[in-house]
Amino acid sequence: MGLELLQASTADALTITGISRRAFHSDVEVGAKKKEGPPGYMSVPYYTKIARLNHLFKLVDNGLIIGGAVLFLDNEKLNIGRIFIGPENHRKSYGEFMMRKIEALYPSVKEFTLDTPVWNIRTNSFYTKMGYTEVRRDNDFIYYSKQR
Known about the structure:
By secondary structure, the chain is an alpha+beta fold. The protein has helices spanning about 15-25, 45-50, 95-105, 120-130, and strands at about 5, 55-60, 65-75, 75-85, 110-115, 135, 140-145. Helix content is about 30%, strand content about 35%. Strand 4, helix 3 and strand 5 form a beta-alpha-beta unit.
């Protein structure tokens, strides 16, 4: 079995919501002013809907869900809406595995895009390390792209 990135089902929404909540709340350790996250990050109905639309993925390690991703495919462009891993599994290379798997899942995609908060030192250094280039920024977010 090992480590896998799989399409999530609506039955996974509750587990994924809990991991999402813990992951985004841990951002207070890397610059967040308070425990919060992107829209729907603590909502079972949100993740249920995203799963129903086939945009939700789960990172599974030996049968246990340890992370998630929300992905939006638009022709030859894939927007990585969010990725997250439970804080107990940070700094174990799971994020690198997940990003490589996401890119491999979509061989026809020419460009991968994502954004992350300006203040988040953890995610900004991670995306740069994974080969993503800053294309613009505003007061709140840095927008990244990776061409293939």
